[in-house]
Amino acid sequence: MIQARDTLTYALQPIVNIHTGSVFGYEALLRGWDRLGFATAHALLDQAWILNLSAALDAMLGTLAVSRFAALPNAPRYRLFFNLDPHLVDTDHGRCALEWLVPPGLRPDNLCLELSRRVDHSLHPDLGVMIAGYRHYRLHVAIDDFGDGHSGLRRLYEHPPDHIKLDRFLIQDIDTDHRKRSIIANTVQLAHQLNVQVIAKGIETEGELLTCREIGCDLAQGYLIALPQLDPGALLPDYTLVAEIHQRNQRELPGDLGLIESFLESIPPIRVSEGIARLFEALRRDKQHHIVPVLDEADRPLGLVHESDIKDFIYSAYGRDLIVNRAFARQVCDFVQPCPLVDIHDPIDRLLEAYSAAADTAGVLITRDGCYQGFISATSLLKLVEQKNLAVARDQNPLTKLPGNKPIHRFVSRAISERDHSWHLAYIDFDNFKAFNDYYGFRRGDRAIQLFADLLRAELEQHGWFVGHVGGDDFFAGIQDAPLTAVLERLEWLLEKFRIDVQSLYDPEDRRRGHLQAKDRYGQLREMPLMRSSLALLEIRPGDDYSDGDELGRTIAQLKHAAKQSPSGLVLQREPNGPAHVMPTVGLDESDARCTNT
Known about the structure:
single chain; alpha/beta; TIM Barrel; CBS-domain; Alpha-Beta Plaits; 3 domains; 8-stranded mixed β-barrel; 6-stranded mixed β-sheet; 23 helices; elongated
């Protein structure tokens, strides 16, 4: 043990707010086990278990990790994530962990104990008792590597933690892997319904960070943000790279931040360390509300005190004197009721989800970088959702529910103003749609438009594109910083897929003939070909100047005309005032097209 004490140390890796990059806490990662002759940290813990030294090693490591953390400036404002020894399931471990915090003067809420994926429920029946002990001492709990090993839904159900840390396997390439995205999105939704924060662990690329934020993860950790650091001086209070990445890749639709701020109520809070008399004073001063937010020493909300829960003490003859009497030993924390916490940068849907999942709550506490920002009552939340729905409806096409002209205009404005990126803008409309609509009627015409909108969602939006509906049979799609080859491949597939799928809307006889006997736009009866899409694709490369809106409009009109005349229906322009390139026709077997519908 003496050699281990002299050799082992801890590196700290930041865990940050996924919206702003502000530090929420640090994970303590063990270093030096290799110098003791072990291949991994787990091998060291396994050997300690064999030698019956697990408890002693755990106490030494806990004290070491806490002392490293406590040396940070403003350490009490953060949370230390410490990995538990998977062998050591001790029902009295919470009391032991508290002892680590005493010398540096830290509080229980500064420590979060991570349950390893290697802890098997079936081998440790006392696991629940141990976690209950942590709760009793106000220590926090996290499930590490959620989705791998034993860190699954059963543990989330039986022992709801404060945090879950998603396994790196699920995070890797999540921006391009639709199945992983779907799994994580559903996991995040489930965690939030249980009022559990989600940490995206192992983020290494901007795409992974953006996707994890988009699907609702709360916190982020990984090499993209910061490497584990042995030198505390190398750690920062804010990792502005996170905010910069979001700013560069901001969504074309405005966020909900401004709307949420307009409904935010700034109810004066009290700290959990303050006395009952201070609680009475807060209720007396604020006649409008019947709740008091309670914070820890780092300004993080712990919950609410409801006036109704202490009214018997307030209004009884001796209750008020009794409850403030030190001998009675009642504290503010004895009256705190849980309340959902939501970051102010989260969408309104997240607020509603948190409120709906909570039992008998007055509303939602709003935080910024983990600190108390205000409160939104149930009544205000209903009004907030109504305002959000109205705003969304104004920006949507009523038929397809795709973003309409305003979001499309915002996207194009970004593309022509942010000249350090490459952009691809696609303008799409149908060929021979008027003949189809006149012949079969507007209801079947609407079905064709909705069919194409569904294809845009499946083939483009699910792969990082922005898609919109200009109106009628005119659509728009755009993407930033994507290779031209990948863009062309996806757009060619989209056009050919629609050409085949839309044939299902024709009557069998017309489909066999390959045309309609219908009037053209001049009223002349003629053979009208079956419908297809034509697409004008504009590539904007770094440095290209398309700031003249009128010139851009003329360019798009010319490209659309050329696309309608081309065999493939796809025309590309790669530089301002450059030539239009007609793309070759792509063949797609009808059975292949049908397979993609599943």
